[in-house]
Amino acid sequence: MGYGGILALLFGYLLGSIPFGLLIT
C-alpha cells in the first residue's frame, strides 16, 4: 500500500465508501 493506496483511500472518502477505496488497493 503505497501512494496508490493513499489515493484510493482519498477517493473512498470522497465517494463515502471506504471499502471501495480498500478494494482499489
Features:
2 helices, flat, mainly alpha
Break the fold down into its secondary structure elements and pairings.
Layout: H1 3-15, H2 18-24
Helix pairs in contact: 1-2
Report on the architecture of this protein.
Helices cover 80% and strands 0% of the residues. By secondary structure, the protein is mainly α. Helix 1 packs antiparallel against helix 2 (18-24). It has one domain (1-25). The chain is flat. 0% of the residues are buried. The mean pLDDT is 70. The longest helix is centred in the middle third of the chain and has 13 residues, at 3-15.
Approximate shape: flat
Strand content: under 5%
Most strands sheet: none
β-strand number: 0
Please tell me how large the radius of gyration is: 7 Å
How many distinct folded domains?
Answer: 1
- The H-and-E topology, N to C, reads as HH
> Helix tally?
2
